[in-house]
Amino acid sequence: xxxxxxPQLQTMLQRLHAAAADDxxxxxxxxxxxxxxxxxxxxxxxxMGEFYLAVSPDEGRLLYLLARATRARRMVEFGAxxxxxxxxxxxxxRDNGGHLVTTEAHPDKCRALRxxxxxxxxxxxxxxxxxxxxxTLADRTEPVDLLLLDxxxxxxxxxxxxxxxxxxxxxxxxxxxxxxxxxxxxxxxVRAPDSGLLTHLMGDLSVSVCL
Length: 211
Hints:
Blueprint: H1 7-20, H2 23-35, H3 57-69, E1 74-78, H4 84-95, E2 99-104, H5 107-120, E3 126-130, H6 133-136, E4 144-149, H7 156-163, E5 167-175, H8 184-190, E6 197-202, E7 205-210
Parallel strand pairs: 1-2, 1-4, 2-3, 4-5
Antiparallel strand pairs: 5-7, 6-7
Helix pairs in contact: 3-4
């Protein structure tokens, strides 16, 4: 199976990628509003709702390929936003006969994500947990074959520590935008000799395998 080529899913991905392409213009407009005092400098969660913060088509396809290549069946995603990466991993979950648990804290994004999953035909193989991921994933007892970290960078390391007992040998841990200053403690931790992880940096993407 290759759900990624399903016309219904491709239509949804093309629409979301097109919308996400305007993020740069949104950032520029926000900086201008902040510079002129129309908006405060704080970039809180409420004001992040307009940004897609999405993976590119190439990055999304890489996520799908990594999930398929490792036959990951039990996947967890931190930071779904509007669901671009979620759709790629959801397609892999379907083709691997597995399931994806994704998380998102922004209420408006959660509403949009549920609609996007339903329209793409992936609602049956993706579960959305709304709220603080440190709380919504705290009761996770099942093993995790693949973990994607793509939300607030300062939470990467706490979430890895939370889920590390569920990550068995050969499990993948992927972290996006690790060039961000707030992710440097995470990078240092996964590259430490005693981390129990084998890590390679691919640009701003960190790929780790649990040993």
